[in-house]
């Protein structure tokens, strides 16, 4: 029972019978793949590549400008590795749970990770840390390397099928 402004009791109106049950059929959803691991099967290889790239970037940074540059270059590659891995895991999870979640979760993931990247880079650039330039080059190397290896992986797996 509801009350109106004059505190009079108003009886609740029953719902019509056709509103109680909706017999509209649900849409047919495509079946999920038998083995959802294909969404992340490239991650171990890309992680190994990223570790090798971190070691190479740290070596180049060390020989170019010493210890802080080595740390900066390795940190730049690590930032990209974490960022790309996070996107892959979120999108793979969303695709296994409900494919309709791909777009909103993907966009949310990109907003979060690029916001964090912007904050990190703004903080590093405004500091006087000697490894900041090497960190920027590490980010560039990480993006180019990860993207190239992922393209190679997709091309290799799609040609073998």
Automatic annotation (TrEMBL):
<keyword id="KW-0472">Membrane</keyword>
<keyword id="KW-0812">Transmembrane</keyword>
<feature type="transmembrane region" description="Helical">
    <location>
        <begin position="101"/>
        <end position="125"/>
    </location>
</feature>
<feature type="transmembrane region" description="Helical">
    <location>
        <begin position="70"/>
        <end position="94"/>
    </location>
</feature>
<protein>
    <recommendedName>
        <fullName>ATP synthase protein I</fullName>
    </recommendedName>
</protein>
<feature type="region of interest" description="Disordered">
    <location>
        <begin position="1"/>
        <end position="28"/>
    </location>
</feature>
<feature type="transmembrane region" description="Helical">
    <location>
        <begin position="137"/>
        <end position="155"/>
    </location>
</feature>
<keyword id="KW-1133">Transmembrane helix</keyword>
<feature type="transmembrane region" description="Helical">
    <location>
        <begin position="43"/>
        <end position="64"/>
    </location>
</feature>
């Amino acid at each position: 029972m509801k009350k109106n402004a004059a505190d009079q009791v108003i009886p609740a109106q029953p719902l019509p019978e056709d509103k109680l049950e909706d017999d509209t059929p649900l849409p047919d959803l495509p079946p999920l793949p038998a083995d959802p691991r294909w969404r992340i099967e490239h991650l171990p290889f890309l992680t190994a590549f990223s570790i090798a790239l971190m070691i190479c970037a740290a070596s180049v940074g060390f020989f170019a400008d010493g210890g802080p540059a080595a740390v900066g270059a390795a940190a730049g590659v690590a930032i990209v590795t974490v960022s790309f891995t996070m996107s892959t895991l979120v999108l793979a999870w969303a695709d296994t749970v409900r494919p309709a979640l791909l777009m909103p979760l993907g966009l949310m993931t990109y907003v979060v990770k690029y916001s964090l990247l912007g904050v990190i880079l703004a903080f590093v650039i405004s500091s006087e840390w000697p490894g900041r330039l090497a960190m920027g080059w590490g980010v560039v190397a990480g993006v180019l390397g990860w993207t190239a290896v992922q393209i190679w992986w997709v091309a290799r797996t799609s040609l073998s099928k």
